[in-house]
């Protein structure tokens, strides 16, 4: 069993690692603090059996990392581990391909329960009644996010990295320096991103990402 943990908070990442080791003592664990680190591991190593993914990562925007990860690796099971405990966010996470959602306030036993459920091919939420609540109270943003999710899924991993850097406000030359490529390469990526995202400029691309934010937004 090969498990990848993605969380930018060192203390919680350590605690989560310990909890996973207790649930699966024989598992091989890998850790990273960013989406860039996630893709680097996936590029260089065999695909893991499971990913535990935080939503609040420095180089992601809301559900963007989850959406793109599920598109690039559709067979890879993902468990979201997040400080957000709203049922609407849990619903949206499952709608974007997560198989389980663990609030960071949950006891360690929930981590074991979620992992065992996902490895058995099931979905898992911290409260069984949440499934009924989600069914009765669908989040209105779900349909608004579906089109954006499809567009994000068409981006290559490198284009996704560039888009996240655009969202941070970095210039082409700064992105080129960070990724160790030419500025002309970044310009080509940006052009492809605009085409795939169906936008005309950086501002529109960043605004489109707003639909995947975790905070409540006006529709």
Compose a concise summary of this entry.
The protein folds into 2 domains: about 1-135, Rossmann fold (3-Layer(aba) Sandwich); about 140-210, Arc Repressor Mutant, subunit A (Orthogonal Bundle).
Describe this structure in words.
The protein is an alpha/beta fold and 219 residues long. It folds into two domains: 135 residues, Response regulator (Rossmann fold); 72 residues, Orthogonal Bundle (Arc Repressor Mutant, subunit A), CATH 1.10.10. Helix content is 54%, strand content 11%. The chain has a five-stranded parallel beta sheet with strand order 2-1-3-4-5, sandwiched between helices. The radius of gyration is 17 Å and the shape is globular. The N and C termini lie far apart (42 Å). The mean pLDDT is 87. InterPro entries: CheY-like_superfamily, EvgA-like, NreC/VraR/RcsB-like_REC, Sig_transdc_resp-reg_receiver, Tscrpt_reg_LuxR_C. GO terms for molecular function: DNA binding. Pfam families: GerE, Response_reg. This is DNA-binding response regulator.
